[in-house]
Amino acid sequence: MFRSLHMKLMLIMTLLIISLMTVVGAFLVNSVAGYYLEQFYSQMQTVFQNDPEFYHDLENADPEEPSGPQQLDQMLRARAGDLGVDGLSRNYYVLDGTTGAYLAGSNDVEGVSLPLTHNLSAALTGEVGDDSDPTAAYMDVAIPVTRGNRDYVVYIKDSKQEVQSLTGQLVILILEALAFGIAISVLLSFLLSKTLITPIERLTEGAEEVAAGDFSHKIEVDSRDEIGVLTSTFNDMARQLQSTLQEVENERNKLGTLFLHMTDGVVAFSQHGEIIQSNPAAEEMLDRSLPIGGEVGYTALFGDIAPLRDALEPGALGFLAASRELGGRSLELLLAPFDRDHQAGVLVVIHDVTERNKTEEMRKEFVANVSHELRTPLTNIHSYAETLVDSAGALPPDMEKSFLNVILSESERMAHIVQDLLTLSRFDSGKSELNLAPFSLAEAIETMVNANRLEAERHGHSLTLELEPGLPRITADRERITQVMMNIVSNSIKYTPDGGEIHVSAGKTGEHRVWLEVSDNGIGIPMADRERIFERFYRVDKARSRESGGTGLGLSIAKEIVDQHQGTIAIVDKVAPGLTVRVELPVEGPAHGPA
Ligand code: ADP
What we know:
Layout: H1 5-49, H2 52-59, H3 68-78, H4 80-83, E1 90-96, E2 102-105, H5 108-111, H6 118-124, E3 139-147, E4 150-158, H7 161-211, H8 226-261, E5 265-270, E6 275-278, H9 280-286, H10 298-302, H11 308-312, E7 320-326, E8 329-340, E9 343-352, H12 354-390, H13 397-428, E10 437-440, H14 441-458, E11 462-467, E12 473-476, H15 478-494, E13 501-509, E14 513-520, H16 527-530, H17 542-547, H18 554-564, E15 568-571, E16 580-586
Parallel strand pairs: 11-13
Antiparallel strand pairs: 1-2, 1-4, 3-4, 5-6, 5-9, 7-8, 8-9, 10-12, 13-14, 14-16, 15-16
Helix pairs in contact: 1-7, 7-8, 12-13, 13-18, 14-15, 15-18
Bound molecules: adenosine-5'-diphosphate (ADP).
């Protein structure tokens, strides 16, 4: 009920007022009662003690007077004013000195039923009874008087009625003041709560919003007191917290993005072997989904490499390495333990080495091919030269000449291969730059076809040319493009049996591209080999290629050149007989200069 600060404040204020008023009230009431008591006895003292004459008169009987009690009564009545006797709350009585019986007084009704008080008892034994008793409901003084040969007691008794009515009024006053004080305390507590509790409540609301993750809310600072300082400190703290959280979030996002898009696969396992994290690359490489906390765990995925226990404690090296062939891919795996929040686990990094292995394979194959391609002409040169040396002068001159011709053509072939390899190596190292300039494609094609005409005729081929009208000028390296076209046309001449048909055509595709097609009705290339003929040294029929002086590098050089121009070269998807090669080039040349 009194949980809120406001209620507590009100309660404290009310209790404070009540206790204060009680203390003040008790003090006041006591003081008033004490004052009256003191007043009573000092009055009595003035009359009976300080006025010896009066006392003397009391004790000495006047012989003229009829009786003692009446005389005493008269004397006392005469001094009623000094004694404060009013006949209501304070009275005087003349009592018999031995029996205490009422003889005369200011109140006959009270007088006959006077109780025997301490002071009265004392007076009856001859002592003056003037002991004050603040706890008693009355005040009294009893004085023994011997008049003639009779003993009397002059007894003054105050019923404290006046004091009681005064204290009653005081109590009412105090209660009124109390009610007033409580009303003020309620009002004050409201005011206090306004100035004290309202900012605290605002601070609490702000703290709740911050706890709920809303940092945008700024608590207004109205005062410069302790609460004001606390509020502005809280605002600073919330701002600091927000920027720290933002930084953490950014870092997390960065790591998350990195983790999501990294090419290596990563799978993290808990110490119990459950998946706690994985990235898309890992799912793709392992060719399965890897749900977090799913049924598939470490043992099912990598248990064959090492049991989880060994992976968690891999020994001095700190990790375990393994490799795996999966779905045509070569994977390299690295199993390393980690400790996150003192929760050990295993991190598996999967590296796809298929490409690397393939490149390595190709490199080996390339070296083997180069060695082989160079060894064949070298062997020929060596054996012919040896024969010539061994049988120097013994061979008929025309045979000698034909041997020397073989040596010559083989060395030319070697020079040709070396030249092609140098061209390719320049492409590979990026040192080959295109000499771009605008030229007429139609003219370049015509020149190229004319240059091949003689060779085509030698084989009895018909070489036809068909150019779309309005073929534009293109920006390209004319010499290189001519080299590409020459290679394609000379291939058609080479791989078409004598008397074949070779057709060269060119045209425009849209505004920005031109195309060139060379088709023949020769031996063609089986579908299975078509993909590979742009590879270095790839030849469908090695013997035939070599026979016709081919190196197996022509089309790969052509592809490099066309790629540099940001064009395409491909075999047109037509079935045998023959082969159609299509080249497409951008009219404006490569968009961002040579690649
Ligand atoms: P090569 O110097 O052997 O001609 P290329 O790179 O120019 O080398 O050609 C690669 C291979 O593609 C050739 O060895 C040949 O087997 C095949 N080829 C190229 N053009 C044709 C064609 N027009 N008809 C049939 N086969 C072809």
